[in-house]
């Protein structure tokens, strides 16, 4: 642990979380947006479903921890929604069990601290043709369909409304982009840079509109060590300095 303490935002989920710092990923964008404001902590596990998340829930989020996150962004569902394998192996989790697993995960996180906030990402769509084309000798057949993705997404959204948890409908949000099947994914499943930009926009929108106290939107959080200093860059007048603490001009996107 390093000081001074900042709010902690934990990204908890499967591969869409683990890979969120690559390919212009949404986790990397959040780390940049919240630099000097909050620490973005990655707890992503490639290939995991909600069953495996439950197995480690108390280790990732121990109830007796001295500090708890200010925000947890949760994503499970894509692997759960895969079609079942005839062997009984694999990541598939029946829809009813998936919802109960997610209920346990969210209730556990809610119980950590009165002021902890949660945003859930629902199951996104896939590029079915590309997924089928990626089949190799390494894996058994991958059954990923948008019909399954949509059913898990809708069930997740319904659960979140029941628990009064903020939820982002990724299944719908990604499909609003032109040529989404090619633009949003690297392999038909995992997010490319364009897909991640949509996720960031949706997360920031939730954070801006939420009536949370304190607000966790990046423009509302204080910037660490933001005071003026004679050691800052000298201005053109040669007499004053320029404080760069709030500069954002270097960003590809000027986020709201």
UniProtKB/TrEMBL annotation:
It comes from the Eukaryota. The keyword Lipid metabolism applies. GO terms for biological process: lipid catabolic process. Keywords: Hydrolase, Lipid degradation, Lipid metabolism. This is SGNH hydrolase-type esterase domain-containing protein. It comes from Sphenostylis stenocarpa. Belongs to the 'GDSL' lipolytic enzyme family. It holds the Pfam family Lipase_GDSL_2. GO terms for molecular function: hydrolase activity. InterPro entries: Iah1-like (IPR045136), SGNH_hydro (IPR013830), SGNH_hydro_sf (IPR036514). Residues 11-197 form the SGNH hydrolase-type esterase domain. The keyword Hydrolase applies.
């Amino acid at each position: 642990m390093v000081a001074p303490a900042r709010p902690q935002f934990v990204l908890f989920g499967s591969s869409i979380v683990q890979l969120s710092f690559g390919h212009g990923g949404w986790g990397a964008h959040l780390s940049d947006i919240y630099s000097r404001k909050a620490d973005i902590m990655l707890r992503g596990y490639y290939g995991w479903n909600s069953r495996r998340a439950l197995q480690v829930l108390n280790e990732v989020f121990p109830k007796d921890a001295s500090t708890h996150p200010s925000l947890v962004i949760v994503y499970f569902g894509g692997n759960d929604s895969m079609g079942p394998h005839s062997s009984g192996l694999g990541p598939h989790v029946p829809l009813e069990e998936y919802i109960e697993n997610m209920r346990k995960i969210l209730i556990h996180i809610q119980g950590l601290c009165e002021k902890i906030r949660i945003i859930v990402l629902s199951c996104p769509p896939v590029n079915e043709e590309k997924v089928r084309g990626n089949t190799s000798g390494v894996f058994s057949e991958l059954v990923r369909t948008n019909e399954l993705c949509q059913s898990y997404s809708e069930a997740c959204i319904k659960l979140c409304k029941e628990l009064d948890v903020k939820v982002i409908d990724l299944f719908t949000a990604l499909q609003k982009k032109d040529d989404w099947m090619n633009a949003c994914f690297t392999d038909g499943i995992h997010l490319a840079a364009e897909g991640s930009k949509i996720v960031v926009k949706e997360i920031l929108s939730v954070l801006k509109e939420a009536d949370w106290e304190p607000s966790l939107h990046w423009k509302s959080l204080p910037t660490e060590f933001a005071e003026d200093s004679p050691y800052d860059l000298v201005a053109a007048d040669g007499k004053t300095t320029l404080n760069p603490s709030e500069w954002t001009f270097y960003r590809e996107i000027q986020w709201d």
